[in-house]
Amino acid sequence: MTKGPRMTALHLSSASGPCTRWSRVGAASVLTAAAVAVPALLPDTAPRADAASLARQALYVAASKQGAPYQWGASGPNRFDCSGLTLYSFKRAGKQLPRTAAGQYNTTRHISPTARRPGDLVFFHSAWGIYHVGIYAGHSRIWHAPKSGSRVRLEKIWTHNVWYGRVG
Question: pTM, whole model, 2 decimals?
């Protein structure tokens, strides 16, 4: 998986241009190096670093599927529904998830909105239960497969009726 051109789709600000792109790529390289080096230096941090790396990889996979068409019940590699996109993304990163959004919610570690970070799952809920899931990309945005007739995209979270879960 290449991180060069695909990484630009993960940018979370409106800044653009070669300098911004390269500085973000450099920052991502530093963060990746830290995630790999810290567990070796501090063994107690290994599970956290592994979870962060897993989440980041799943986020990259979801972003790489930008523009893929929505299809109910599809879980890739070319068509997705919401939970199919999260299932596919985490599977490619090395973690198996249940097929449905509710099943995925039940297997994640539930976290507060203030603890959310890129790669966490965002579960949309109503009085009838969980009805949608996406992958948090930062700055209140998610990668998701919205609905029939749409395509995988990055979009601002549109409601406060969300819960967050961390895949471990």
Answer: 0.72
Which one from 19, 110, 132, 160 is the annotated catalytic residue? 132
Instruction: pLDDT tens for the chain, 168 residues: list them.
Output: 444 444 333 433 333 444 434 444 444 444 444 444 444 444 444 455 576 799 999 999 999 999 999 999 999 999 999 999 999 999 999 999 999 999 999 999 999 999 999 999 999 999 999 999 999 999 999 999 999 999 999 999 999 999 999 998
132 catalytic? Reply is yes
Identify the active-site residue in 82, 110, 139, 160. 82
| Rounded alpha-carbon distances, angstroms, from residue 7 to 72, 74, 105, 112, 143 | 28, 25, 27, 27, 14
Rounded Cα–Cα distance for residues 124 and 132 (Å): 5
**Annotation says 144 is catalytic:** yes
Catalytic residue, chosen from 11, 125, 139, 144, is: 144
Q: Which domains does the chain have, with CATH numbers?
A: 4-166 (3.90.1720.10)
DSSP track, 53-83: HHHHHHHHHHHHTTTPBB-TT-BSSS-B-HH
